[in-house]
Amino acid sequence: MKLEALTVALRPRTAWEACELGMALVRRNAGAIWKPWLLVTLPLLIALNAIGWVFDLLWLSGLLMWWLKPWLDRIPLFVISRAVFGETPTPRQTARAALRWGGRWWLPYLTWRRLGPARPLYLPVDLLEGGDGGEARQRRAALGAPVYGVSALLTLICLNFELVLMLGLVFAGAMFIPFDYLPDTLKSLWEAFVEQPGWMIALLNVLQWIAMSVIEPFYVGAGFGLYLNRRTEIEGWDIEIVFRRLRARLSAAAAPSLLALCLGLGLGAWLAPAQAQDAGGDRAAQFEGGDAAAPAAEPAADDAQVDADELSEQGGGDESSEDEDAESSYPSVPIRDDEKKPGAQTSTLDALYGAARSDDAALRRAVDQSMKDPTVAPKQKQSLWKPRAKADEPEPDKPARRRDRSGFNGIGSGLATGLEVVLWGVVALIVGLLLFSLSRWLGWFRSGAGDAVQAPGDVRSAALAEPEPLPDDIATAIRRLWRGGRHRDALALMYRAAVESMAQRAQVTLVPGATEAQCLRASRQLPLAEDRDAFARAVRVWQYAAYAQTLPAAEEFDDLVGTLSRRFGWAA
Fold first, then answer.
1. For residue 152, how many other CB atoms are within 10 A of its CB?
2. Which of 22, 159, 168, 440 is surrounded by the most beta carbons within 10 Å?
3. Under 8 Å CB-to-CB from 209, ≥6 apart: which residues?
4. How far is the C-alpha of 289 from the C-alpha of 435, rounded, in Å?
5. How far is CA 259 from each of CA 255, 264, 265, 269, rounded to the nearest angstrom?
6. Reduced to 3 states, what is the DSSP secondary structure of residue 533?
7. Is the dihedral of CA 340, 344, 348, 349 positive or negative?
8. How far apart are CA 145 and CA 72, in angstroms?
């Protein structure tokens, strides 16, 4: 895995920040995800609905499309798992991978794991890591245990988003229905939903596919973000990336240093033979005398040893203190004869390394301790032995740490006193207002509820005025009112005559006070489309005049009256 090629900034995140990271990856690679998604899911949707239409099982087509979600989730997972390392696949590569990638996991995710709430988190573990059954089970437990609840809540949220999106598409379509036709349309849609005709089920399948195509890639991306975050927490990917970048930076800067080192080693190898020849005679004299040889690496010690030998040959006194220090600072090398075989010698590692020598047992203990980290193995079992006599005894409560709060006592008492004064002031203000308005509310408590309620007068009844009958020549009467300046009366007469003519020709009975919408619904029973259009035009002109205060032009009104006269047989 090329961690240095990651295109995202890895760091320990919260679970919801990790979900947002995965969704950001989906947004960044939207084209590479939704193109192969459409290439795969759209033919599948058409094929399933066609088969369901033939066998009259369209409901089964929608159920299968929903059940195949884990198989389709591999498309966005394939794209973002490679795009996060800077290798975005083409739509053709993704479509080919959708047919064969992760084939051995199809059965589990389409059967017993289909309804699992942690599916978006477990899918990357199985498909990307490629472990066998036992190893994959352990990996799922280690990665998914701390964020299982977040994954389940993510599944519930995305499911609700799909339902809301489907309902939103239904209501968005209802916005384009004219208001006059809206009640009848909604009633027809409800009846169709109850009866479940073929076209209604096919429409619901299409809406389900649209909602799934919008939400499902983000659902998979959020699960992949959780997967990346858990691996970063457990395996320290962010720290490893920092060390790899540091190594690359040091490797780039090491070339000049390596060249200088090579030159130094070559110069040292050239000077070493000359120094060895100068020191050879002194070492031979020391070994012949049975004395310990001083190391050749210390030129000062060699000079001191030569001086000491010269003084001893001349019968001088003891060796100087400088020679004793030089010899005592290095281990002596004993001289053995060639006839004697070497015996077992003790290890000199402790003398050479001392306290800096590495202890393998300590390293193993450190590794075992790191493996017990709760982030690596979140489950921990601890057993504790207690005597039977003490097992039933309650544990004594630990004495609570008392803090010195004497400094706050004065502040608290001062605030309490101030609030008490304010409350008593509010009470005094309320009492004063009540006394000031005593004359206004005191009468409410005197002898009942005040003035007696007057008894209702005699009920008077009158016959409703019957509407005037329509004139014999309706068109002429309407035009006469219009030319006389009584525009609203002319429009009212035209509307009333059009309604009565429509009801008579359509053979319907209108309720008293029928609205314009009810009259338009009743006019749908007219046999001819020209009659329906003429009546709808009359209703529209009347509505503009009655509610918008907008009168038609004289030519337009005269043309409308002529059209109604021809369609409904008004006498000219």
1. 15
2. 22
3. 41, 45, 65
4. 128
5. 6, 9, 10, 16
6. helix
7. positive
8. 25
Q: How many CB atoms lie within 10 A of CB 298?
A: 14
Show Cβ contacts of residue 55 under 8 Å, excluding neighbours closer than 6 positions. Answer: none
Cα of 418 vs its chain's centroid, Å: 50
- What secondary structure does DSSP assign to 110-156, as a single string? HTTTTT-TTHHHHHHHHHHH---HHHHHHHHHHHHSTTHHHHHHHHH
CA distance 557 to 541: 9
- CA–CA separation, 124 and 226 (whole Å): 10
HSE of 420, CA atoms in CB hemisphere, 13 A: 6
What does the alpha-carbon distance between residue 572 and residue 565 come to, in Å, rounded to a whole number? 7
Please give the C-alpha separations between residue 279 and each of 206, 331, 333, in angstroms, as whole numbers.
96, 19, 17
Question: How far is the C-alpha of 95 from the C-alpha of 41, rounded, in Å?
Answer: 10
Neighbours of 40 (CB within 10 A): 19
| Helix 474-483 × helix 487-506 angle, to 10° | 160
Q: What is the pLDDT of residues 18-58, one digit of tens each?
A: 899 999 999 999 999 999 999 999 999 999 999 998 888 88
Q: How far apart are CA 81 and CA 76, in angstroms?
A: 8
Closest C-alpha among 153, 166, 150, 151 to residue 214: 166
Q: Please give the Cα distance from 328 to 290 (Å, whole number).
A: 16
Those residues with Cβ within 8 angstroms of residue 515's Cβ, 6 or more apart along the chain or in another chain: none
What is the Cα–Cα distance from 527 to 509, expressed in whole angstroms?
16
- Rounded CA Rg of the chain: 50
Displacement of CA 285 from its chain's centroid (Å): 84
Q: Please choose, from the candidates 483, 466, 469, 468, the residue with its C-alpha nearest in 3D space to the C-alpha of residue 561.
A: 483
Q: Is 299 exposed, middle or buried (0-12, 13-18, 19+ CB in 10 A)?
A: exposed
Which of 50, 329, 320, 31 is closest to 198 using CA atoms?
50
H/E stretch holding 436 = helix 406-436
Q: How far apart are CA 206 and CA 424, in angstroms?
A: 69
Q: What are the counts of helices (DSSP H) followed by strands (DSSP E) for the chain?
A: 25, 0
Cα dihedral sign, 90-94-100-101: positive
Q: What is the pTM of this model?
A: 0.48
User: How does pLDDT run across 92-113, given as a tens digit for each residue?
Assistant: 888 888 888 877 777 888 888 8
Phi and psi at residue 89, to the nearest 5°: -75, 160
| Segment 290-305, tens digit of pLDDT | 444 444 434 444 443 4
Q: Range with the lowest mean pLDDT among 68-77, 216-225, 338-347, 426-435?
A: 338-347
Q: Is the dihedral of CA 372, 375, 376, 378 positive or negative?
A: positive
Question: Residue 403: its pLDDT value, please?
Answer: 56
The mean pLDDT value of the chain amounts to 76
C-alpha span between 464 and 96 (Å, rounded)? 81
Sequence-distant (6+) residues with CB within 8 A of 434 are 441
Q: Tokens for 441? A: 């509310």
What separation in angstroms does the CA of 569 have from each of 345, 501, 534?
Answer: 135, 9, 13
